[in-house]
Design brief:
This protein has 11 helices and 11 strands. It is of the alpha+beta class. The strands form 3 sheets. Strands 6, 7, 8, 9 and 10 form a 5-stranded antiparallel sheet that branches. A hairpin with an 8-residue loop joins strand 3 and strand 4. It is flat and about 100 Å long.
């Protein structure tokens, strides 16, 4: 029995051209099947379905049938051809095919990208700088104040207290332009801090001096460039009822406040917990910086050509991550001012570096015979469940259903390789960034 013939041509370090030849018997079976299907479904005057002579079908539809059968043969044989040629493609194939002719073998070729063959060199004693973890009393104080402000509360003032700057008011209002209500311009129980300019500076200023229960008419003229086109350049009349006048109070910084947070019995214990949290977060940030330094140094010492198909997939993954995060805020890429083409152009170098790092770490794992055992995979799932605050069995089922087990295994393998690099690295400890500097990162929330 004649079988498919496959040969592989090397175009570059990352490109292969795979030549495929299918025997004429395969071509004959494909054409026969296509003509039978066509005859069964085709309606031609003077012939019953399935009884149209083959020569008529070939004369009228031969070119289209041969084209369709050629594409079908490519689709049916492509995966087996890649296996026979020992090719693991990492890009979409570029197809080049000859015309399919009855009674002759059918030939086509595809150009695909593959992972480059890499030998990772010079990866011991990579120089890195690790910042010393140091949390100052000032930083702890900032975090305590943030917690105080986050636990502030509102208290009703007396009925005879006039609205002042900094007060919080509870309002019912209706908005009109002339005698017509403004669409969406009505609210009940609307809370507003006077002086925040969250609503309108003019609106807030005209409520100064009002008492609880008082009704006022407030006119506000909006600028011509106001983002709401229905209000731009218009004067709006508000009928306002002041339902309540409140002050914002911040709890005192004492042992009682510490106990209300539920994590400490007194203020000193709370300070200690905040310091521990800050140290942990700084250590995590420092570990990330060390990892990035190691990967950057490793890629600098091991240059190679990166498959652009993998870069495209990484760019698409980055874009989808942003799309997902924006969707959680009901915002589209377009609304966020992100154009797909521009985004990919601006982030191509970043994506290419990411792919290069992934390939290097993957190859280094093989060189060092590193693997992720089933027990280590289970531990990874347990940590994921802890981070997600979900039962481990539910998280495991989620990973299985969404085909995330292998990506998790690859992630854990990368962590093993990075751990190896850290153990072998030439690490210099350096002072931490000054408090409040951009390099220090975000404050602890």
């Amino acid at each position: 029995m004649t079988t498919m013939k496959v040969s592989v041509e090397q175009l570059s370090a990352i490109e292969r051209k795979v030549h495929v030849e299918l025997p004429q018997e395969t071509v004959r079976r494909g054409l026969d099947k296509a003509y039978r299907e066509l005859s069964r479904t085709l309606k031609i005057k003077g012939f019953r379905p399935g009884k149209v002579p083959l020569d008529i079908l070939k004369r009228r539809f031969g070119t289209q049938v041969e084209n369709d059968v050629g594409l079908q043969l490519v689709n049916d044989s492509f995966v087996d051809a890649m296996k026979q040629g020992a090719i693991e493609a990492v890009s979409d194939p570029r197809l080049d095919r000859e015309p399919l002719l009855e009674g002759q073998p059918f030939r086509y070729s595809v150009v695909v990208e593959i992972k480059p063959e890499i030998i990772v060199r010079d990866y011991a004693k990579l120089p890195v700088r690790r910042k010393r973890v140091d949390v100052s009393d000032e930083e702890v104080g900032v975090q305590l104040e943030l917690r105080r402000q986050a636990n502030a509360f509102l208290r009703t003032r007396g009925d005879d207290h006039p609205v002042g700057t900094g007060d919080h008011v509870l309002l019912d209002f209706r908005a009109f332009i002339g005698s017509q209500p403004v669409p969406g311009g009505e609210a009940k129980g609307y809370e507003l801090e006077i002086g925040s300019n969250r609503f309108s500076a003019e609106f807030e200023n005209k409520l100064l001096g009002a008492l609880k229960g008082e009704e006022r008419e407030v006119e506000v003229t909006y600028p011509a460039d106001h983002p709401n086109k229905n209000l731009a350049g218009r004067t709006v009349r508000f009928e306002v009822t002041v339902k309540d006048v409140m002050e914002r109070l911040v709890p005192e910084l004492n042992d009682e406040f510490a106990r209300t947070l539920g994590s400490a019995q007194n203020l000193e214990e709370l300070r200690g917990l905040i310091r521990q949290q800050a140290e942990k977060q700084k250590k995590t940030a420092n570990d990330g910086e060390v990892r990035q330094q190691l990967v950057d140094e490793l890629t600098a010492r091991n240059p190679f050509e990166v498959p652009q198909g993998m870069v495209e997939r990484e760019l698409q993954r980055m874009l989808e991550t942003i799309r997902y995060r924006l969707a959680a805020q009901n915002v589209t890429l377009e609304q966020a001012g992100i154009q797909e083409g521009t985004f990919k152009q601006q982030n191509r170098d970043r994506a290419e570096n990411s792919v290069r790092a992934t390939l290097l770490l993957e190859r280094l794992a093989a060189q060092e015979n590193l693997v992720v055992t089933d027990d280590e995979l289970e531990e990874g799932l347990r940590r994921a469940a802890e981070e997600m605050n979900r039962p481990p069995d539910k998280v495991k089922e989620f990973y299985r259903k969404n085909n995330l087990m292998e990506p998790l295994r690859r992630q854990l393998l990368e962590e093993k390789v990075v751990k190896l690099l850290v153990e072998q690295a030439d690490i210099t400890e350096v002072p931490p960034d000054p408090p409040g500097s951009a390099a220090q990162g975000e404050e602890i929330s």
